[in-house]
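Quick illustration, no need to memorize.
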Amino acid sequence: MTDRFLCRGKRLDGEWVHGHYYIDLISKQHKQHTIQGTRGFWTVDPVTVGQCIGLRDKNGTLIFEGDIVTFGQRKYQIHFEVGSFALLDKDGGMISKIGGHNDYCYSLMPLYDDCCWEDDCAFDLEIIGNIHDNGDLLEST
């Protein structure tokens, strides 16, 4: 399974699962959000679904939309919007313009391509939680 198309979501019983995400139209009024992994199919809470950004943190862990990471001395949320992944601070502001598709959302790829940004290196990103399980981590910046 290609990392870039890998998604994760929280099953209705609270366990995280990884795989391909899709929506089943059971009826016009009802949709079932599903992740298909190597061990089966799971119904997931659609609010928790996030795509893998195709990059790993400094510990080799895949980074997903919704993860909370440290970068330098600050904490950020991984966010996807308008075709790019970005780092959002606790107030919803993005870090300094680092390239991307438009003036509103900036890609993380230049951090890896150029390696360093100001005094911090992209390979220093570290996952410390996610907004669904540890949303209060952003507040303690």
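The longest helix spans residues 109-113.
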